[in-house]
Amino acid sequence: RAEDGVCLAVSSIPFQHQRRVTLQRADGNHIVFCVEKNKRLSVGQTYRVYLPLSAIPSEVKTPHLPQPCALAVEKIETGSKCIVPDASEK
Pick from 71, 37, 65: which is nearest to 53 by CA? Predict the structure, then answer.
């Protein structure tokens, strides 16, 4: 499943090669998941994260349960412009 949101926090997980990421969706709910330590995410940036369908929703999670690991993360560029050719150029 794909989820879009703004990155609120990125933190290291002790003794693991992963980082814990908190994303806030447009509806205000938070998603907590893990990414590989070499992935660079910036707080305040918008991302689309692809999680396995078997992931437990973050609302049910407790701190001692493992977080789902993202299959892929892509940065969403905001303010991208659509270029439409000018009719006067024809």
Answer: 71
Q: What digits encode the pLDDT tens for the residues 46-71?
A: 999 999 886 555 544 445 445 688 88
Q: What whole-number distance in Å separates Cα of residue 22 and Cα of residue 20?
A: 7
- The tally of CA atoms less than 13 A away on the side-chain side of residue 56 is 9
Q: How far, in Å, CA of 74 to CA of 63, rounded?
A: 26
The C-alpha R_g of the chain, in whole angstroms, comes to 17
**Model pTM?**
0.71
Beta bridge partners of 32: 22
CB atoms within 10 A of CB 48: 14
Report the C-alpha gap between 59 and 26 in whole angstroms.
Answer: 15
**CA distances in angstroms from 24 to 15, 30, 79, 85, listed in the order given:** 26, 5, 19, 36
Is the Cα torsion angle 9, 13, 14, 18 positive or negative in sign?
Answer: negative
